[in-house]
Amino acid sequence: ETIDDQIRHKERENRDVELAIIRGASVLLEEGCEVDINRLFEQLELNPEEAHQALERLKGEHLLRESRPGVLGNFYEEHSGKLSGATHGWTFPRPIHSLWKSLPALTTDSLPRVIHTPSYVIHSRHP
Q1: Neighbours of 125 (CB within 10 A)
Q2: How far apart, in Å, are the Cα atoms of 69 and each of 18, 35, 66, 111?
Q3: What does the pLDDT read at residue 110?
Q4: Residue 95: CB partners within 8 Å, gap ≥ 6?
Q5: Structure confidence by residue, pLDDT tens digits, 56-108
């Protein structure tokens, strides 16, 4: 099953929490960053218990993974780009909206990656 198939399945089943997590994380992971899980949930205004359950399902499906406890990361940027593309269609939210909403969930170590990436590069990847 492809990433697109997995995302379409989640959309049909209204698995909105899982989709929100993928949208928020993938735009940062695509830039090679790491994401603090609890801050991501807070930024996305998700119920923590429900969000942790959804994240466990996503990890079990190999869509996301923790690089260390409490931090998403360590995925191929191409994989994250496919996740972002599959969850961001031609409707709202656009990738740039997900990016700005999720930025505060970056780990401190990831800040230099975003700061040193020209904004036109990020914007061209996330119109």
Answers
A1: 17
A2: 19, 11, 6, 19
A3: 86
A4: 27, 84, 88, 125, 126, 127
A5: 999 999 999 999 999 999 776 667 778 888 887 655 666 677 777 888 898 98
DSSP state of 68: E
* Structural tokens at position 123: 């914007």
Q: By the 8 A CB rule, do 25 and 102 touch?
A: yes
Using alpha carbons, select from 107, 72, 86, 77 the residue that is nearest to residue 23. 86
Residue with tokens 């740039």: 96
The predicted model gives 7-24 an average pLDDT of 94
The neighbour count for residue 96, using CB atoms within 10 Å, is 15
Q: With residue 109 as reference, give the H or E element that holds it.
A: none
Neighbours of 80 (CB within 10 A): 24
Nearest to 72 by CA among 117, 46, 39: 39
